Amino acid sequence: MPDVFLKDRSLLFVSGTEAQSFLQNLITTDIVSLEPGEARPGALLTPQGKILFDFMIWQDGDGYTIETDAGQRDGLLKRLTMYKLRAAVTLAQHAEEGVTVSWGGGADDARDSQGVRDSRFAKAGVTLTRRAGRYGNDAETLYDALRISLGIVVSGPDFTLQDAFPHDVLMDLNGGLSFRKGCYVGQEVVSRMQHRGTARRRVVTVSSTTALPATGTEITAGGKPVGTLGSVDGGSGLAIVRIDRAGAAMAADTPLLAGETPVSLALPGWSGLVFPTSADEASA
Q: Max Cα separation, the chain?
């Protein structure tokens, strides 16, 4: 039952009578349907539909807590303040620093009542809770190994902000991207991608019989780029790849390489996605 403290996570608190409508009209997550005790992924997009900031969000009393990478916090706070205008909203840094993630407990584990359940892991059949503050000392590598095995990415090692669309990181499938609520920044672009089925860059798990090379190594098929290696844990890793190109290579038995290392790719089972062939569409 690991309890891992993620020291590089920071929190913001959004409150006020218009907090819900303010966030609902701005970020990708449908927070109106957000259940108490549930944490969902989300993003603030550029007008071109790419991820400017990514985070987790959950209800916290009469407001909302936003958990993001410590390096993003100040920029996110500044951008939210810019959008605030005259809305009855208060934006503040959370009193706690860092987040503890816990998983593997039984149904009666008291920690479940003290944290919020991460919907991304729930999609993959794992109950993982998040709590502001430090409540554990287990190695962070345990958390990285878990999310790598389940195909759950984080910005930084797995994708670059302002370079990835929400579909690229599976936000359309993990609860972080709504197509039913009204407009928000970048909504038109991501809705068009959804409607046309044009998403081709997707998260995959990467495996090798030997240790994988470093994060950032190019993955190729027949000498042509397919994607880029992200987080690595020994012979396991994550990548965002062109699944049409990877699917065609796999159908033709063309070796896939991360640098010089032979690798196998798999789409996360919880995603429902399949590798398309030349005649197929990527679909959930």
A: 59
DSSP summary character for residue 113: G
The CATH number for 3-138, chosen from 3.40.50.2300, 3.40.50.970, 3.30.70.1400, 3.20.20.190, is: 3.30.70.1400
Q: Cα(61)–Cα(149) distance, rounded to whole angstroms?
A: 33
pLDDT at 94: 87
Count the alpha carbons within 13 Å of 16 in the hemisphere toward its beta carbon.
15
How far, in Å, CA of 1 to CA of 206, rounded? 26
> Whole-prediction pTM value?
0.92
**Token output for 226:** 């397919």
What are the angstrom distances between the C-alpha of 272 and each of 1, 145, 258? 28, 22, 25
Greater model confidence, 283 or 266: 266
235 contacts: CB under 8 Å, gap ≥ 6 = 207, 208, 209, 210, 211, 212
3-138 against 200-271: fold identical: no
- CATH architecture for the domain at 200-271: Beta Barrel (2.40)
Q: Check pLDDT > 80 for residue 124.
A: yes
- Cα–Cα distance between 157 and 231 in angstroms, integer? 6
